[in-house]
Design goal:
The chain contains 21 helices and no strands. The protein is mostly helical. It is globular, with a radius of gyration of 21 Å.
Length: about 425
């Protein structure tokens, strides 16, 4: 039974036809999505406001010298209403450096800009995962396939952020100072850099801290020079507005992966839900800190950092779960070698449930789940955070078991070494 399970896991995990099928499917989905952004009438569809619409619109407003309008709900709503004719909208709460990056894409038609951003960031993400996972890349991509589909449909930045985290972890593992470069670039979504930053501080890698700080400050200075100091007041006000919308339950909570979203969607008030979120953040970062102090093997430490990344902020979505793929890439050989057949299937089912729950809910309720609506009926029920914690617990159980088959431990070590050799090559 154990040997059959391991053989099955290896077939899935190393399948070259599977990786080609996944990449081809992803490219086809991106092409269809580009048409839906640019000219949905060609597919017999109406324009639906989706994430990359907000990216492109914010960049266009910045390009026209109206960046302040992107950071105010009323003016952003008016612009999105003109674009899509919808009553839902997407507040713009990204820091000015990311707005500047989107300004660079805004000169292109939205379909072309989407393809460049989505496929470019997907290629970057896949390359980073290949560096980490080596021959196990197909299995890693299958494990997080739902969130890959979400990013290729919506044009979100999950691939870019997860790719930067993975690039940081690779460089950090190899004791390279340039780990600070991807860490500094995470200023575009700083709440997802907390666990990575903690890892650097606990290891006292001060050269990495300096480089990350220089990169982050450079991006802040460039965006300030482009937009003026007033943009930071606009940004602060946008974050404040977003906090009010979150407390009121206006966001699609069923798409969110935080403990806050789960508690609030089940009836907890904003204060109680935020208290539970703080507990989630403290516990996850505390576990990461203990693992650092105890000298846990780096592949497991990297997986813990990725797990903690999605547990810190109350504002996290299913498209951010691409970070799980990075963590899984570091430990996938051990999951196969150590888990029983039942554990392996349960583990895979939990990854799919966590990554795909929002997508399934959207399909069942005929709700695209992208924008904010000014009532609480849109929030749904969020179960992603409990599923994630169950997944983390099962992963711990698997990794603390002895190898499931004879010599499986050696197989896992050989696979990890092969992945490292592939990365070095």
């Amino acid at each position: 039974m154990a040997r059959d399970h391991t053989a099955f896991g290896e077939r899935i995990g190393r399948s070259r036809p599977l990786i080609f099928a996944l990449i081809l499917t992803g490219c086809l989905l991106a092409a269809i999505s580009a048409v839906r952004f640019q000219a949905p009438e060609l597919l017999g569809l109406k324009k639906v406001l989706t994430d990359f619409d907000a990216f492109h619109l914010a960049g266009r407003l910045a390009l026209e010298g109206r960046v302040s309008e992107a950071y105010h709900a009323t003016s952003m709503l008016a612009a999105q209403l003109e674009m899509a004719g919808t009553s839902s909208f997407m507040p713009w709460t990204y820091p000015p450096p990311f707005t500047l990056a989107m300004q660079g894409l805004a000169g292109l038609p939205i379909g072309a800009a989407f393809l460049l951003f989505a496929l470019g960031s997907f290629a970057f993400y896949t390359w980073v995962l290949r560096r980490i996972a080596g021959p196990w890349l197909p299995g890693v991509l299958v494990a997080v396939a739902p969130t890959i589909l979400i990013n290729l449909r919506t044009g979100q930045n999950g691939f870019l952020i997860a790719g930067l985290i993975g690039a940081f972890l690779l460089a950090f593992r190899d004791n390279r100072r340039m780990a600070g470069l991807p860490l500094g670039l995470l200023i575009i979504k700083p709440h997802l850099a907390v666990a990575a930053g903690l890892l650097v501080l606990l290891h006292r890698r001060w050269s990495v801290v300096v480089i990350a700080g220089v990169v982050a400050l450079a991006l802040l200075a460039i965006s300030t020079a482009a937009y003026g100091l007033g943009v930071w007041l606009d940004f602060r006000n946008a974050v404040r507005e977003a906090g009010l919308f979150l407390a009121a339950g206006y966001y699609p909570l069923f798409r969110m992966n935080s403990v806050y979203a789960a508690a609030h969607s089940l009836g907890a008030g904003p204060a109680a839900a935020m208290a539970l979120q703080v507990v989630s953040a403290v516990v996850s970062l505390g576990i990461l800190s203990m693992a650092c102090i105890k000298g846990v093997a780096f592949n497991r430490l990297a997986a813990l950092a990725c797990a903690a990344t999605v547990c810190v902020s109350p504002y996290g979505y299913d498209y951010d779960l691409t970070v799980l793929g990075v963590g899984i890439a570091f430990i996938f050989p051990e999951i196969i070698a150590r888990g029983t057949g039942r554990q392996f299937l349960s583990w895979f089912a939990l990854t799919w449930l966590a990554c795909g729950y929002g997508l399934a809910w959207s399909a069942a309720m005929h709700d695209d789940g992208s924008g904010v609506t000014l009532d609480a009926s849109h929030r749904g029920i969020s179960i992603i955070a409990p599923v994630l914690w169950l997944l983390f617990w099962l992963t711990y159980r698997i990794l603390t078991r002895p190898p499931a088959v004879e010599n499986a431990g050696e197989q896992a070590r050989s696979s990890l070494q092969a992945a490292e050799d592939a990365a070095a090559a």
